[in-house]
Amino acid sequence: MSTAAEAARRRPAARPISRRRALRRSPFGRVLVKLPFWLLIAVIFVYALFPFYWALRSSFTPEGDLFSTPIKYFPTHPTLDNFRGALSASFFQHALINSTIVAGAVTLLSLVIGSLAAYVLGRFRFYGRSGVLYLMLSMTIFPQIAILGALYTMLSGRKIVWFFHLPNVYDTRWALIVSYLIFTLPFTIWVLTSFMRALPGDLEEAAYVDGATPLQVFYKVLLPLIAPGLVTTGLLAFIAAWNEYLYALSFIQSPDHVLRQQDRERVRRAVGPDHGRDDHRDAAADRGDPRPAAAHPRGTHRGRRQGLTGTPARSARVLLAE
Fold this sequence. Notes:
This protein is an all-alpha fold. It has helices spanning 2-10, 19-25, 27-60, 81-87, 90-123, 129-138, 148-155, 173-198, 201-209, 214-225, 227-243, 246-251, 264-271, 279-287, 297-310, 316-321, and strands at residues 159-161, 164-165. The chain folds into two domains: 42-79, no CATH class; 90-321, MetI-like fold. It contains 16 helices and two strands. A two-stranded antiparallel sheet has the order 1-2.
């Protein structure tokens, strides 16, 4: 009994918790510590989304209230007249169709050529493979306007050498398709090569044992596994071709081939009288201009992991038979 009492007396007394530490451990203190971080997130969120909000607000604002003071951040009388005026213009509809055709063709060609090139660069070993990759990546360093003159020479049907005469595709959709491939193809090849290198070599070897040719291995075994990469690069290539303006302005002159990014001024003149700045019609044309969102990287990598973990359990012979 006395021994236990003596041990209790010898035990050091607990130090009192300081107010600062007690505040941190309390629920209010935890919220207070995280508050600067969430304030920073809120500032970045507002900074990034405010231009899109203002374009959307301007598209629903009547013409008379657009420049009224004080500024109204929410339209008092929202209207759809700006959308009707922009989307009912026949030339703007034709421009949207041209943009869709050009962007779709660029995306398809980028994926076909890029996937084949990525298969060669990612699955075969040869001298100069890294040099080829870095050479293609270096092509994206040059600004678009730096090669504008050379592209015009090629697309207008000039003779590069005495025996080689290029076709004249100036003022056609092919002029844009060929010029857009210059900046979409290197990116597509670079990204898809990384996907090809990440695939396990056992599947390829099993397919070769089953008698598959390299082309069959490509489109029956490896291509389904990089489907998330194809979707991601395809969306990015489509968005890049959809938003391009310099080449569309330089290589297209005929009204039948004009893209929607060139038709802003015609939309302004056709919808109604110009009041110096017709931001509401510009915004309505933008909102009537659907643009796909790029796939999230986490979803892409998750889809790739699912493909890698689900497919090796199946025999290469089954993949070739499908």
